[in-house]
Amino acid sequence: MHVRVGTYNLHGMRAGLAALAPVVVALRADVLCVQEVPKFVRWRARRGALAASAGLAVATHGRVGGVAVLTGPGMRVLHAEHHALRPFRRLERRALALAVVEPIGDEGRLVAGSFHLDLDEAARAYHVEEIIALMEDAAARYDASIVLGGDLNEQDHQPAWRHLAARLADCHAEAPAGGGPTFRSPRPRRRIDAVFAAREIAVVSCGVPLNGTDQAGASDHFPVVAELRVGH
């Protein structure tokens, strides 16, 4: 089966639903890992409104960390978890949202995780270890393949990214397509957002989609979408 998995830092939805919705719709994602979703006033309603505007559903429902997984109508959600990661003094609390999903009427099961690493290097290094352990545990319990989408707040030559890429495939590096840099719009120069996938998953393509939508007007990050082939 082919599955489109995306990651998108929404910048707190500051640009508003009218700006974000066309970008999210154009991603055509079956699974979308989002960061900087609302986590205070009316956070459930605002997340739900964004998902509904693109024909998606919110699969995970934790508030901490501002991360969530959204799923398309072709995916069945089997299980969801939300984990607050180890706190670091004077740093923002980080979290992992994960959902176990499978396509309706097809084979193959994924555990999809959304994460947002800190600006602090020590916190990133610790949290990436936590995230891998949590994802591997869920994958083993549900016999699922791992996909991770997130904002790493560092680039591919730095330690946390390299650690992730040693355990999982960096999808853009495997099969680059579209754009590469994701931050900061409107003229991004750094690739700090990525989709990673288990080695048994075939990466067909991955990158910033060039679809004509106003990505620069919707967020300070550009989205990334990977097309994956799961199973036979």
From TrEMBL:
Domain annotation Endonuclease/exonuclease/phosphatase: ranges: 6-221
Recorded superkingdom: Bacteria
Keyword Nuclease carried by entry: yes
Pfam families hit by this protein: Exo_endo_phos
InterPro entries documented for this protein: Endo/exonu/phosph_ase_sf, Endo/exonuclease/phosphatase
Entry keyword annotation includes Glycosyltransferase: no
Record GO terms (molecular function): endonuclease activity
Keywords: Endonuclease, Hydrolase, Nuclease
Protein name in UniProt: Endonuclease/exonuclease/phosphatase family protein
Originating organism: Nonomuraea salmonea
Upper lineage: Bacteria, Bacillati, Actinomycetota, Actinomycetes, Streptosporangiales
